[in-house]
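Q: Sequence in, structure out?
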Amino acid sequence: MNYSSVPNALSILRIILTVPVVMTLLNQQYFLALVLFLVAGITDGLDGWIAKRYSFQSRLGSILDPVADKLLLVSSFVTLYVIGLLPAWLLFLIFLRDVMIVSGTVGCFIGTGTSKDELLSPSKLSKINTALQIALVLFLVVIQLHPIQEQWTTIFFVTIATSTVLSGADYVWIWIEKVISQEKK
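A: Exactly. Output:
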């Protein structure tokens, strides 16, 4: 077995886990959804750690990892909206940021002549935002099993909205800096 492919296999597993996570949420099997989403979340941390720790980073992995994250999170958020656990405004904000980031990243790579070998790397704020978004899905599922006071849900929604906006703004700033540095060359 080629161990350098383990991080990519973990990202692919996360992509595969998207379907059962969505199905368990739709069927209101919250405990099973929680377990599956936790496993998917663990693969997210593990694939990056293994890739960095053992120098298994690859261009494919730098693409697969965020695709797996976005697929799992966006599918989970859409499902949570459909079953009435996530407000439309927050789903829209998250979706808008993701579309902006994908479009901006593609545009930045095409416009700046970035090498095909260069790894895609998320910003620190984006990593924090992803962790908070994972926590939001877990939170919304857990409170179906153990209800809490409504104000905690509102606080969580506002926190996610704030991190989403800040993360999007961070990417815009990074792209502006990249364009400016290219103009100076």
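The chain is about 80% helix and 0% strand.
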